[in-house]
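hey so u asked for the seq, here:
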Amino acid sequence: MSMSARFLAACLWLVGVSSVTAQIVLTNVPVADAFVRSLDPAHNYGGAGALSVSGPIATNVIGQQEGLLDSFLRFDVSGVVGNFNSIYGAGRWGISSAILNVTEQTDVNNTIFDGGVGSFEIRWIANTNWVEGTGKPNNPTTNGVTYAQESSILNSNLDKSLGTFFNGGTNGVVRLSLGMSSSFVSNLSTGNLVSLFMTATMNSSVGFTFHSRDFVDPTQFPFLEITAIRLPQITSLAIAGPDVKISFTTTNGVSYTVEYNNDLVTGSWSTLTNNIAGTGGIVTITDSSAAELSRHFYRVGAGD
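ran it, structure tokens below
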């Protein structure tokens, strides 16, 4: 087989050629959410109009410490995935970012909620089977998730941190850019139920209360903002003297990495170049002296 034939085969094996579509942002609200309390570990608060995260040193409006408060949120992203498939084609897109948007409320008129600025963590959790329940601050129930159940719901071997965040301590929208854990991204991409867990970090003074999906104004429900981009596709591999030129599709504002491998069975992928800025069109890079090699394979990835 000639050198040019090898490269042609590699190109066709990796991807096909298609048009470039800009990144698409879709959103959805929770299908379930609830907060739980360490001072009332046997009761549920899934019907409240608010969710909250409270640390061990936060206090309420009258200076009392109301214990730890954690929150659970569950999203059904099947519709989002279906829309991405319709726009890009199944298997031709990837998640580039996910942002949890919530509306903070600092002037909460119930002393069950602590207040204060501080740090908290958001985790992707593998368990999506917890029950929302119908409990409210003035009428807690036992028909849903409770603080006492956390140990059976959370799994340190499977759950992944999506980052540590700080509340602003003011009323209004708070945008929380979530980390792209591979487990979380895979869960989003397959269109299954997605669960998030919010908890205070150690010794945090956070008292972060925000509207739930039961709040009176649906425009202030929490929502997950998911951005997807078309996966890059190699459009050509061309020999130019001793060099090889690799051309691929890009999306404006997205960075790309090109990797190479000499043996797809026993070899490993190495970075040829990274931080390639997408233009919305075809980008070409050069692999110097690669045409002199017996074989060479390439792949292109989007993002960091």
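The first helix runs from residue 3 to 14. The longest strand covers residues 93-104.
lmk if thats what u needed
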